[in-house]
Amino acid sequence: MSRLMGSPDKFLPSEWKHANQVHFRSSEAERSLSQRLTAECQRLVEESDKSTKHMQQDAQKKLEQRIQDIKFWRQELDQKFQEMVQEIETLIIFKSRVERALESCSEPFQVTLQCLTVRQKRVAIDLVHDEVEEELLKEKEVIEGVMVLLQRTLEQINEQIRLIRSVKYYLEKDLQDKFQAEHIDDFCALLTNASPGLNKGNSDFSSVGTAVTPEEWESLCILNISKAEKEKNNSLSLRALVDSLLEQTAADMRRQYEATGRAFELRIEETKTAKTQLENQLNELLAETANQEKNLESLRVAIAEKDAPFKVAQTRLSSRSQRPNVELCHDPAQIRLLEEVKELANHIERLTEALKLSEMELKALARRQLSLEEEIQVKTNSLYIDEVICHQLRQPVVIHNF
């Protein structure tokens, strides 16, 4: 205690100088270290500022490039999307054309069936499997084939519309995603260090955006566009096929319809000619019947006129057979009277036979007249069916191009 309360130890001048030198050197070292640290910190600040600025510029550049990429592919996708929309509308028009064409087949088909049915009402020999019936059966076959073909084409159009709508759906979904991505990247590109509401958290974003590589992202765009291009080409081919098909089927139906019409005209002309010939035959037959009736009457008159001379000759012979004795002579008068009776009997017999033949011929003429009248009626019925009923059925039919 006495040591502590005593006067302090005194240092030598050398110690004092040494202590000062130590303090000087320590202070100089610390100041030098501080200066180096300050310079290093300044360099680090400048480097970080430069790096930060460079990174922001690079990020800004990449964002802008990304935005340009998105815009490019969005425009490409939007173009294909609009093409798909237009193609669907066009296919719907083509579908409507095919439906109208299919619907238009109904009337000609029904008319053809009605013509085939009504021509079954022809009678007798006119119920023939003629060229008209062959052409009507061909017409029925052509229309049935056209209807089957159009129905199949309609199904193809519906399937193509479905495929294009599927492509359109994925294009629209991709466009929506890219629109949202572009909107987000536009927002990011506009952000600055002074922008309000910056994210102050320390969330780990290292795993974000690693699901799809840029190459895969671009390949998906290319895939959607290639699918759209493929379906568009398929649609163009289908539309060309439909155009050709509608034109060809209409031409086939029109050609067959005209062929059937020509067959009808020819058959009607043939029937009219046959009917005219039959009517001429009937007129000639009626004239011949009148002549035969006159001939029959003249035979009856002739027979009646022979009756009196025959009776006179017989009476003379009978009377001369009463001559007495030798007067009963076979004289020239007797000979002549015998010849007269014989000849008159022969004439009467021949006239009577001719009368019978005339009566038989008259009956035959009457039967033939009835047959001709029946045949004329058959032709009249056939003409009514072909020229009136079938013509009225077929007249309103028009084969349109759709």
TrEMBL record:
Chain segments annotated as coiled-coil in the UniProt record: 268-302, 334-375
GO biological process assignments: cilium assembly; cilium movement involved in cell motility
One GO cellular component term noted in the UniProt record for this chain: axoneme
Alphabetical list of InterPro entries matching this protein: Tektin-like, Tektins
Keywords assigned by UniProt, alphabetized: Cell projection, Cilium, Coiled coil, Cytoplasm, Cytoskeleton, Flagellum
Main location: cytoplasm
Compartment(s) where it occurs, according to its Swiss-Prot or TrEMBL record: Cytoplasm, Cytoskeleton, Cilium axoneme; Cytoplasm, Cytoskeleton, Flagellum axoneme
Family of the protein in this entry: Belongs to the tektin family.
PANTHER family associated with the record: TEKTIN, TEKTIN-1
Function in brief: Microtubule inner protein (MIP) part of the dynein-decorated doublet microtubules (DMTs) in cilia and flagellar axoneme. Forms filamentous polymers in the walls of ciliary and flagellar microtubules.
Assembly and binders: Microtubule inner protein component of sperm flagellar doublet microtubules.
Name recorded for this polypeptide: Tektin
Encoding gene (name): tekt1
